[in-house]
Amino acid sequence: MRRLAASILALALLVLSATPVFGAVDQGKLKEIKALNQQMYSIKAQIIDKEVEAGILDQAKAEKIKNAMQERQQRIEQDIDKGEFHGFGYKKGCCRKSSDAQKTE
Question: How many domains is the chain partitioned into structurally?
Answer without folding.
Answer: 1
